[in-house]
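Lecture notes, part 5. Sequence design as translation. It can be helpful to think of inverse folding as translation between two languages: the language of shapes and the language of residues. The source text, in structure tokens, appears below.
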């Protein structure tokens, strides 16, 4: 076990692999910004949700319509437009997860980010063409965003030493949370000062710039990168010597995967993670509006704050997990279960505190932030666990578990809407109790069946490669 990891360690702070994680962090921030900005711009894009509500000043109103074109889309049409991006993401995830182990990750992520940014730039023009065009634009954007988000996980099979997987993956994935914070914070101000089309132009242009940096700086393998130092290259390759994945064209061991309880533990945990995360993503502004009675700008700020804390908790989870592992404080299996427990148990716990212990404005805000942000501790647990049990098939497993997780998110979103529609008075109690039940059951399954070592069905491929 001692010679599994190299004795000499290259510091990560100024290393190329750390810079790569920061670059992915920026990619994820832009992707999430492009995905979420429509939910806020829709407020000024549609007549019925116009926040100004002042019809008297005709000159000012005409200028505002030029800056913020308005459309007559029904709530049903708006819902279809919102969800269209997820159809594209769902369709592409599993094919990309499979192909990412066979084709260039550099091209898949770079082209995915660039094309998503291109569709962001043309979205205002698509909106002028009507709802069919904007739905098609968002669905296509979802395809390219899904490609970039899934393909990136395979990077760490070749670039992340085992003792640094937690910090590198959590740093890159936390860009999703930072992007959510940024878009909630600035979109309202951009709409008000420059007009809602500028939101899509700004985030689209930023995405094009970052995709150019990606093509210039990233290489699929540290072996071929011209800028990485010799000591860092040797450190990465030696630390991954016994776990290096292969480009073998052998078929996937589907039957073994289906029978694998550690894999099912990841699936179940991911389902409940997305269940909770989607509720807090879509319904936090509604909760703030109905319980705290603040204006739109304050609502945007309060809805953004949980993502800033989630971003911090995600990075903390990755660094802490690596610290425990490198100092031999805890075993890898214990570390994964610890962060699964924090990430699945704390959100419903604070959700129930939000219902029963929040007696003032500030206590409500604190419990709301903790409910929406503590789920990111899963970045040190189930969100990286697939790399522990089957690095050779990580791309495919990540795609499958993410698709199942997104199904859980869609179900929770629909169910919460039904609960709020039928019983507004006690709806939030029911929502948080249901969340607690699902998370506790999922956590028990993860604690009982979860593992953090390479499974036999994943070892076969590696042993075949070394022969």
């Amino acid at each position: 076990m001692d010679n599994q990891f190299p004795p000499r360690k290259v510091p990560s702070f100024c290393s190329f692999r750390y810079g790569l994680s920061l670059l992915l962090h920026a990619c994820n921030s832009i992707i999430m910004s492009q995905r979420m900005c429509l939910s806020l711009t829709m407020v000024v894009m549609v007549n019925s949700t116009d926040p100004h509500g002042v019809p008297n000043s005709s000159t000012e109103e005409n200028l505002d319509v030029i800056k913020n074109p308005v459309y007559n889309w029904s709530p049903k049409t708006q819902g279809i437009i919102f969800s269209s991006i997820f159809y594209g993401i769902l369709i592409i995830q599993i094919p990309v997860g499979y192909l990412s182990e066979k084709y260039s990750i550099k091209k898949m992520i770079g082209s995915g980010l660039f094309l998503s940014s291109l569709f962001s730039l043309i979205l205002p023009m698509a909106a002028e063409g009507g709802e069919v065009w904007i739905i098609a634009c968002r669905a296509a954007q979802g395809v390219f965003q899904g490609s970039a988000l899934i393909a990136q996980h395979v990077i760490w099979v070749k670039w992340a030493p085992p003792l640094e997987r937690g910090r590198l993956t959590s740093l890159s994935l936390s860009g999703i949370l930072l992007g959510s914070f940024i878009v909630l914070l600035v979109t309202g101000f951009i709409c008000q000062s420059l007009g809602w089309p500028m939101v899509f132009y700004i985030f689209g242009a930023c995405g094009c710039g970052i995709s150019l940096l990606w093509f210039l700086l990233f290489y699929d393998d540290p072996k071929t990168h011209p800028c990485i130092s010799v000591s860092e290259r040797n450190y990465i390759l030696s630390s991954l010597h016994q776990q290096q994945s292969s480009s073998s064209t052998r078929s996937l061991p589907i039957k073994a995967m289906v029978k694998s309880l550690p894999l099912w533990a990841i699936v179940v945990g991911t389902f409940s993670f997305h269940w909770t995360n989607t509720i807090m993503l879509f319904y936090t502004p509604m909760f703030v509006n109905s319980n705290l009675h603040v204006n739109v700008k304050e609502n945007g700020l309060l809805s953004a704050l949980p993502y800033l804390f989630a971003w911090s908790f995600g990075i903390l989870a990755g660094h802490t997990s690596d610290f425990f592992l490198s100092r031999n404080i805890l075993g890898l299996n214990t570390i994964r279960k610890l962060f699964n427990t924090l990430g699945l148990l704390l959100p419903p716990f604070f959700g129930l505190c939000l219902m029963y212990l929040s007696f003032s404005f500030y206590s409500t805000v604190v419990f709301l932030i903790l409910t929406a942000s503590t789920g990111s501790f899963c970045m040190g647990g189930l969100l990286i666990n697939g790399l522990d049990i089957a690095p050779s098939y990580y791309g495919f497993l990540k795609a499958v578990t993410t698709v199942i997780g997104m199904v859980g998110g869609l179900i929770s979103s629909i169910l919460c809407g039904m609960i709020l529609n039928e019983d507004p008075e006690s709806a939030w109690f029911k929502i948080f109790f249901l969340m607690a039940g699902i998370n506790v059951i999922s956590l028990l399954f993860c604690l009982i069946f979860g593992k953090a070592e390479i499974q036999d069905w994943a070892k076969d491929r590696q042993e075949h490669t070394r022969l």
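The translated text above is only one of many valid answers, since several sequences can fold into similar shapes. Confidence is low (pLDDT under 50) at residues 1-7, 48-63, 244-249, 461-467.
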